[in-house]
Amino acid sequence: MSETPAIRLSGLRKSFGSVEAVAGIDLEIADGEFFSMLGPSGSGKTTVLRMIAGFELPTAGTVSLSGRDVTRLPPFERDVNTVFQDYALFPHMSVLENVEYGLRVRKVPRRERRERALRALASVRLEGFETRRPSAMSGGQRQRVALARALVNRPRVLLLDEPLGALDAKLREQMQVELKEIQRDVGITFVFVTHDQAEALTMSDRVAVFDQGRINQVGTPEEVYERPASAFVASFVGTSNLLSGAAAKALIGRDGTFSVRPEKVHMGTSGVPGTVAEVIYAGAVTRYVVDLDAGARMVVVDRDRRELRGQSVCLSWQDEHVVEIKENADAA
Amino acid sequence: MRSFLHRHPGVRLAGLLSAPLLWLVVAYLGALAVLLVSAFWAVNTFTGEVVREFSLQNFRTILTEDVYRNVTLRSVGVAAAVTVICVVLAVPMALYMAKVASPRSRHWLVIAILTPLWASYLVKAYAWRVLLANGGPVDWLLGGPGRGPGYGLFATIIVLSYLWLPYMILPIYAGLERLPDSLLEASADLGARGSRTFRAIVLPILVPSIFAGSIFTFSLSLGDYITVQIVGGKTQLIGNLVYANIGAANNLPFAAALAVIPVLIMVIYLVAVRRSGALEEL
User: Fold this and answer.
1) Do residues A212 and A69 share a domain?
2) Are A106 and B191 a contacting pair at CB < 8 A?
């Protein structure tokens, strides 16, 4: 990357007492990127976000925003804004006052303030809600207010801490699309924390997969999904059939750890023999759990539901869909 | 029996509530009613017997004689001053307890706030009498005998503030505990320094809690008659005026009429703060 990254984290660590929440993170996020931090709860992703925002001081390492070291700066001196998981709307202020707050603090003149706030509310499709109190709004609407309140300040970087976590599935999908559109429109860097792998894959330019305070893999959604760098990534992002030891030697022909995605496996009359142990119907697809005669268990996804429980089937896949996982020493 | 109660929830409710309701009606509202009624009686100045005849004489005296108006204003002033002092002291203390101190030390701080309430009121008031005595520790701290405030109105305000401070800290602390940290972070994130966050976010959200505390400090100060006797010097407040009329003057109806004043003031005060949502904080 030739230009200065919007965010650069180097050697970032954070300990709470004896617990090491973040165990050494090096990361560069480019200007205008939609970047997701994906990981299970307790993997350190939110702590990293909070250190970028300035709510937590790192135990070691630095945070740079557009080339400027801000590691020791308080939140109000950083050119980033945050959308909080609980939205953190001020309950005693109207929607408009909430959105205007950042501008008021920065002493933006009244007329400009009003204009920008109204425009921000329009961009999240909340015209006509100006005088409402946050308590009189639905979760999805509050979420939009929180977004408008952050975006109205035109930060270089917008930090989003599981902002869709409290929404129901339908609204979530809708907001995913909207968020992505908004990010494209305003063109600023979005750093998006989520534990939902599907969400991260749909929305992001790049994804960092977190586990136990470290980053396992950084890459485009496709890279992370198609070529997982560790067994953890393979199983956390989507589902994977992990083969190792004797089974790997028997099925792949080599020693090592290999991943095959369930949708890449074909169930038919030729290939590796096994018995269907379980049929799980999930609407759009049906998952078949197959116990291979060679001693491994594999999941296969098929569009059609067939009553194959207890029956013998043969599984086959193409060599190009087998991903060898070379664990780096410290992630193992 | 059990199934009878199950089928008749009204009977069940009556059984549950009759004792407390009886207490509320007879002991509490009854006493208030007796107070109100007796305020309209009079005392035969010659025999000292209570004359049970309706008369507005007591209230006429209170409204026409300057001394009672002055005492009322002074009492309200003392209650207001005590309340303001308690707010000024309680907000930073509660803020520290709820948002700065570690969860473990938070427990100990709450206990530390509560322990003075276990000690007798009289002991605490007399402790202050010793502190404020001529040539006592406060004088000594301020540079010698006579340098301190001594006994009087000022001493009364100080001691009442000391006595009622926990009643202000606790509701504010509870209010702050319910205030999510993310609101403070959001404010800082939007560019506000600590002082701005305090003024624009914390204080407005705390207003109901502060009013809730003020109901305690204000009413307790308004009704107090012991502290003012111990450290008040010659200061007269409604409380000790009532006391003097019950004791020395032996004029119970007039004492009752005087006691109506703080009741009225508190009713007005409660109606005024009700709009802030303070009553939900109690």
Assistant:
1) yes
2) yes
Write the pLDDT tens digit of every residue in A75-112.
Answer: 999 999 999 999 999 999 999 999 999 999 999 999 99
In tens, the pLDDT along B182-202 reads 999 999 999 999 999 999 999
Q: Do A97 and A175 sit in the same domain of this protein?
A: yes
Which residues of chain A are at the B interface, by a Cβ-Cβ cutoff of 8 Å? Answer: 53-55, 74-76, 80-82, 84-86, 88-92, 101-102, 105-106, 149-150, 153
Q: Which residues are CB-contacts of B274 (< 8 A; sequence separation ≥ 6)?
A: none
Classify the complex by whether its ipTM is higher than 0.90, answering yes or no.
Answer: no
Helix (H, G, I), strand (E, B) or coil at A106: coil
Crossing angle of the two packed helices A95-105 and A110-123, in degrees rounded to 10: 130
Contact B189 A90 (CB under 8 A): no
Indicate which of A79, A81, A92 best probes the interface with B, i.e. most B CBs within 10 Å of its own CB.
A92
Domain hosting residue A276, numbered range:
243-331
Contact check, Cβ <8 Å, B185/A82: yes
Alpha-helix runs per DSSP H in A227-332: 231-236, 245-251
CATH of B65-281, one of 1.10.3720.10, 3.40.630.30, 1.10.10.10, 1.10.8.60: 1.10.3720.10
